[in-house]
Design goal:
The structure holds two protein chains of two kinds. Chain A is of the alpha/beta class. Chain A folds into two domains: 128 residues, Aspartate Aminotransferase, domain 1; 236 residues, 3-Layer(aba) Sandwich (Aspartate Aminotransferase, domain 2), CATH 3.40.640. In chain A, 35% of the residues lie in helices and 14% in strands. Chain B is of the alpha/beta class. In chain B, the strands form two sheets. In chain B, strands 1, 2, 3, 4, 5, 6, 7, 8 and 9 form a nine-stranded mixed β-sheet that branches. Chain B starts with a strand and ends with a strand. Classes of the chains: A alpha/beta, B alpha/beta.
Chain lengths: 379, 382
């Protein structure tokens, strides 16, 4: 049996999602834009999914949900769809944002994109952010949970700060790594938009959504049949949306991820005295329950990853999208993590199905492999 | 009348009494290469013909990669007695061609009722009369040549696509290529295979320091090579244990050389097992520390077999050009993490002393390590 601990890269679709997708393919396959009665099925399902999403993020009255292909498209639409608003203005984004946000901010024409530094814990430096906030800011992009370290960003403080310093600015939250695993209140955070992705919460790949606050206006990034209120042309991915709805409804309200994470962390500390957490202390309120980023020097991340792979234990070394770029993680760099520690960082990310027993197996494997591999260092 | 490919061979022409042996091998290779297109292949009158394939263009591209083939011409085959019909087809073929042309007839059937100059004139005249607005005749330096071959049937073609040349694989024996994921070794393998040598390849895999993806990249390179060399048996040898032993027991500046010596020994063992007579490496003088002349001498001396190093005098830029030409460059350049640098000395010996190498190697159980590596190798047919 394999142990999958790379749930921040993607998750296994849950049974409910698979069943819902099967139903959407075999029974409710109709085009929701069609005029005959059976097409009401997918239409109703989409409506329900929108409501469930709006409720789950405590969206203010009048908010809308646009279904998209995933987190990247949702972030892109939120940022590049507001180019006009940003002209000759500044865009603030945190130094640890996912490339889907960072690259989009930098691609906005006529705007100045400014990265807000991270603290050593991997959260936005609030003082630096406050100093940057003024009437020239049109857009602020901060993620809910950092994808590499699991650091929960202080969105409520940021939202309140925004209301004081630059209420005219749009506040976009990339919720891809936080949605359902960490509570989020759009109203309390004064957020104007929120991006989420299906495949991080046991729905399939290829589906995501952007929650748009009541005042938000975006320019469509593709033209065609005018679906999704003219914002996202193209026949709706009803199969993916059915999976998304089922996965949201099936996601457990209570789970043991925090205990599982702490068990692993305490075990690693006991085994490897040099082990260091990258990000907030695992037991702090700023640490998400489902991500543990830990450096196990002197063994390099990739070597340990493959050594564990040899034992059928699958972990990550940062953002899965960038693992072929052969660079030290930009997030760890932004946190000023020392090079040897950054080069030996592993990301364990959990789902509600992971167990303490699995962690014991992982600890056993890490113990053996770390003892073996740390004997071999470049002299 | 039907369309077919006329396959022409190059260096085999120079063979004397052995020529039938080489021809038979070449026909076999063309037949294997075109099997997936369900083509019929036959040898007739010093030409290889390929017909009835499911996809003419793809089939031709495949034939152009068969070592021993000089060039390929998409041709029309028709009855030779109806000369008017030949003229009509010739004219159709030249309709879409612009510029200067000439007709070049060849008669292996000397009893044909017209001689070659007459065929040239008749067909040339017929074509020109109907296409005067975009064609003119130049018999000295024409831009296009319309070839007409009168054999047991008539064959017409006006396009010649050059192929890879060389000799049919299998006519030159068998050799073992030390295949890495880099740019050089696939090129070295290609060059030797082109001389008719059947390849097997040996790849050293250092899991967990190199990944499954890195291995897959090497196998992808092997698949590209195998298109040219008619399949290639590949040994993926687990090498981590040997690297660890060397790292722990041998002098630091000699670890790469001792590792290379082990690679050569293992490759020779596998070559012997497979009936191969030589080893092939992608080494080039002075490219890296283990490829200085002194270093090459120390890695060369552990094997009895000849070691072919076809790139020995090549600059890196030339090797890159070659790799691009044969289609391996892109795959070779794919980035995949390689943590073997753990085992790489910061200052490798460039003028190694044999005494120090032997002292280091004495501490290793050579026979057991090599035997285990060979026995545990994964064998993959590419």
């Amino acid at each position: 049996m394999s142990i999958y601990l790379d749930n921040s890269a993607t998750t296994r679709p849950c049974d409910a999602a698979v069943q819902a997708m099967l139903h959407a393919m075999q029974e409710d396959f109709y085009n929701p834009s069609a005029l005959y009665a059976p097409a009401m099925g997918p239409e109703k399902m989409m409506k329900k999914c929108r409501d469930v999403i709006l409720q789950s993020v405590h969206a203010p009255q009048g908010s809308r949900v646009v279904f998209l292909s995933g987190g990247t498209e949702a972030d892109n639409l939120a940022i590049l769809g507001q180019q006009k608003k940003c002209r000759d203005k500044r865009i603030l984004y945190s130094a640890g944002e996912h490339p889907a946000v960072k690259e989009a901010c930098q691609a906005v024409e006529g705007a100045q994109a400014v990265a807000v530094p991270y603290t050593r814990e991997g959260v936005v430096d609030l003082q630096a952010l406050e100093e940057l906030m003024d009437e020239s800011v049109a857009l602020i992009c901060i993620m809910q949970v950092n994808n590499e370290t699991g650091a929960i960003q202080p969105l409520q403080e940021i939202g309140e700060m925004k209301m004081r310093r630059c209420p005219q600015a749009h506040f976009h939250v990339d919720g891809v790594q936080g949605y359902l695993r960490v509570p989020f209140d759009m109203k309390a955070c004064h957020a104007d938009s929120y991006a989420l992705s299906g495949h991080k919460i046991h729905a399939p790949k290829g589906v995501g959504a952007l929650v748009m606050g009541p005042a938000m206006q975006v320019r469509a990034r593709q033209v065609g049949g005018g679906q999704e209120n003219m914002i996202r042309s193209g026949t709706e991915n009803t199969v993916g949306i059915a999976g998304l709805l089922a996965a949201i409804e099936a996601f457990p309200k209570a789970h043991d991820m925090q205990q599982v994470k702490m068990h692993l962390w305490q075990g690693l500390q006991a085994l490897i005295p040099g082990a260091r957490v990258n990000g907030p202390a695992p037991d702090s309120v700023l640490a998400a329950p489902h991500i543990l980023n830990v450096s196990l020097p002197p063994v390099r991340s990739e070597t340990m990853l493959h050594a564990l792979e040899g034992k059928k234990i699958y972990v990550g070394i940062g953002s899965a999208c960038s693992s072929h770029k052969q660079k030290v993680s930009a997030v760890l760099k932004a946190m000023h993590v020392d090079q040897p520690l950054a080069e030996s960082a592993l990301r364990f990310s959990f789902c509600p199905d992971n167990t303490i027993e699995e962690m014991n197996t992982v600890l056993e494997a890490v113990k053996g492999q770390h003892a073996l591999l740390s004997r071999f260092q470049r002299r | 009348m039907r369309q077919l490919l006329m396959v022409r061979y190059g260096e085999i022409y120079l063979k004397g009494l052995n020529r039938p042996y080489f021809m038979k091998a070449l026909v076999k290779r063309v037949r294997e290469a075109t099997k997936e297109y369900k083509a019929t292949v036959w040898l007739h009158d010093a030409r290889i013909f390929v017909s009835d394939m499911t996809d003419t263009d793809a089939c031709m591209e495949r034939v152009r990669k068969v070592f021993g083939v000089h060039s390929v011409c998409p041709a029309i085959e028709m009855e030779k007695d109806d000369f008017d019909a030949i003229c009509v087809e010739a004219e159709k073929m030249m309709r879409s061609v612009n510029g200067t042309f000439k007709v070049e007839a060849r008669r292996s059937d000397k009893r044909y009722f017209m001689d070659s100059p007459m065929i040239n004139r008749k067909i040339g005249e017929y074509v020109l009369e109907r296409n005067e607005d975009h064609l003119s005749v130049d018999v000295h330096k024409p831009e296009h040549i319309l070839s007409v071959e009168i054999r047991d049937k008539a064959y017409l073609y006006c396009q010649v696509y050059m192929a890879v040349g060389g000799m049919p694989v299998g006519t030159g024996g068998k050799a073992a290529l030390l295949l890495s994921g880099g740019i050089d070794s696939p090129v070295a393998g290609y060059m030797i295979a082109k001389r008719g040598v059947q390849l097997i390849s040996v790849h050293y895999h250092s899991f967990p320091y190199t990944s499954e993806q890195a291995k897959e990249k090497v196998l992808d390179l092997g698949r590209i090579l195998s298109q040219y060399c008619c399949g290639m048996k590949t040994y993926v040898v687990p090498f981590t244990e040997i690297q660890m032993e060397i790292h722990e027991k041998c002098p630091e500046d000699y670890t790469t050389l001792i590792m290379r010596r082990y690679m050569m020994r293992i490759a020779e063992k596998i070559a012997e097992k497979e009936g191969a007579l030589a080893l092939i490496t992608g080494e080039s003088i002075g490219q890296v520390a283990s490829q200085t002349m002194e270093a090459l001498q120390t890695t060369n001396e552990v094997v009895k077999m000849p070691v072919f190093r076809p790139l020995i005098g090549f600059d890196k830029v030339d090797i890159i050009e070659y790799a691009k030409k044969i289609g391996t460059y892109e795959t070779s350049s794919l980035p995949y993490e390689d943590c073997c640098t753990v085992f790489t000395p910061k200052h490798p010996a460039t003028k190694p002393k044999m005494q120090k190498i032997l002292e280091g190697e004495e501490k290793l159980d050579q026979e057991a390590l090599i035997e285990k590596a060979v026995n545990d190798a994964e064998i993959i047919l590419l």
